[in-house]
Amino acid sequence: MSGQRTFKVDLRGMVDLLSHHLYSSPRVYIRELLQNAVDAITARRASDPAAPARIALTTDGETLTVVDTGVGLTETQVHEFLATIGRSSKRDEIGFARHEFLGQFGIGLLSAFLVADEVRVVTRAEGCAAVEWVGRSDGTYRVGPTDRAETGTTVTLVARRGAEQWFRPVTVAELVAHYGAILPFEVTVDGEPATGSVLPWRIDGWGDAERRAALVGYAQETLGITPFDVVDLDVPEAGLTGVAYVLPVATNPADRGGHRVYLKRMLLSETAEGLLPDWAFFARCVVDATELRPTASREALYADGLLDRVRDAIGDRLRGWLVGLAHSAPARLTKFLEIHHLGVKALALHDDDMLRLVDEWWPMETNVGRMPLADFRARYGVIRYTATTDDFRQLAGVAAGQDIAVVNGGYTYDSELIERLPGLGDGVVVERLDPTDLATRFDSVEPEVELSLRPFLAAAQTAMDRLGCEVVLRTFEPSSVPVLYLVDRSAAFRAELRATRDQVDELWAGVLSAFDKPTDERPQLVLNHRSPLVRRICALTDPHLVALAVEALYGQALLLGYHPIRPADAALLNRSFIGLLEQAVPMGDTDR
Length: 592
Ligand SMILES: Nc1ncnc2c1ncn2[C@@H]1O[C@H](COP(=O)(O)OP(=O)(O)OP(=O)(O)O)[C@@H](O)[C@H]1O
Known about the structure:
Elements: H1 11-22, H2 28-47, E1 54-59, E2 63-68, H3 75-82, E3 116-124, E4 131-136, E5 141-145, E6 152-159, H4 169-180, E7 186-189, E8 192-193, H5 208-222, E9 229-235, E10 240-246, E11 259-263, E12 266-272, E13 283-289, H6 305-328, H7 330-348, H8 352-361, E14 363-364, E15 371-372, H9 373-380, E16 383-386, H10 389-401, E17 407-408, H11 414-420, E18 430-432, H12 435-439, E19 443-444, H13 447-452, H14 454-465, E20 470-475, E21 483-486, H15 489-503, H16 506-513, E22 524-528, H17 532-538, H18 543-560, H19 567-584
Parallel strand pairs: 1-7, 11-13, 16-17, 16-18, 20-22
Antiparallel strand pairs: 1-2, 2-6, 3-4, 3-6, 4-5, 7-8, 9-10, 10-13, 11-12, 14-15, 19-20, 21-22
Helix pairs in contact: 6-7, 7-8, 14-18, 15-16, 18-19
This protein binds adenosine-5'-triphosphate (ATP).
């Protein structure tokens, strides 16, 4: 048995599909009804520009009627469009959505079945008889003659049990205002006007200050923010106009706040994605577009080539805004970076443009003052940097004394960004500095001086042995720094390892020991023989005094280098401090 057959559609199945999988909430039924009324008026006005353009919704909490002054439908059209799922009068002969209409899929009316079991449509096309169509959610419908004086359509729904909340007058008024506040036709809910709002960037004849105040006011109302700046948007290809608001507070670049998007003046979404490139996380847009397409649920933008081009165009606009700030208001750009630097830096890890922005504009901490890396390079050539803030603190003063400029790469993302700079291909050279690298820039003391100080050094080493630290004597600038405590990374790692091993059980202790290769890379206490204080200390002969002085220097070096103070260090600091006090304060009569 062969032959042409027609698909049957199980309407219940379709309604279930729509309600649970396409639309996020039954509330969209209002949007779909409103949209059909708007389209019908648009169609009528195309041939009769003077035709009335009114949409009136009324509700008593159980029944909702939507009356429009649109084109209406003939009986043949009722069968073709209302009673055929997926058939729409809003496509051209080839099946493309006609761009003057909001609808295009021929499924919107089905959303009425999310809240009602029966949809009644009374409609009359110009010069034709009125027709009544009653469709039911079980998939049946009937058509018959009826009365209607004017051209237009009336849609009536009675709330299904359990769906009454969507028919409450306040809810209906809210939903109509939400979706339709800026529609170009008069819409009323129970006699009250629901439209009439304007998009502030569309108003002509305002002075700059007045316009900006209106745009800022609009951001406060709709997004709840007072923007850092407002950037006008205009993408003719997509019939898109609007504004991008630069956020006044830091945001997480991964957190897509989304944009407020209108399509042909009907609200699509307050959280639409895809309108901006990832790097432009610092802006939220409000736009209206005539050519961008919605997805079938009409809750998101359809990802097509046009959306890609819009994204590029808005990206270019925001890039231009950033570049413009750099040239005309660098202080504003710095302020912008103060707010959004973490996000900008996070993106700069992957985006060369953002990296250049950071390079040129973000003032980094250095031991010669805060400055952008580009300036630093221009002055000092190589970018020497430390990987951590602790390293930087240890090094900053001493490096400056030796005319080495160092950048603190310890803040979030900074050292990764510095390491990425040579990849930009501008001949940038970077070099990571370790505190121990400095030791190679220290000079040894004269051999005869070293020889004469052997007893002192031996006494000093004895005092430091129990702290696992090696004492060395060098000369370096600046002479105002008497002592440095230098830990290289592997030594620091092993110290941590040992501390952990002492706290865990035997099995883990064994595992950890495998990493602890014995080498003599103990931290160093470097005494600066160029410091007058150290020279005087070197002249001490009493081993007790030597120990006290060296311990005090050790404590000071720990504090200056922001090293962690272990309990043993704290005890030693205490002891040396009291010991030195005792030396400093002469014994009084009471002690005798
Ligand atoms: N108020 C109305 N006045 C005149 N015609 C209407 C009205 N409501 C619906 N129609 C007709 O019924 C058809 C189907 O409507 P439906 O809302 O299901 O789909 P659509 O609006 O064409 O597309 P979409 O699924 O994108 O909303 C429309 O194409 C239109 O021809």
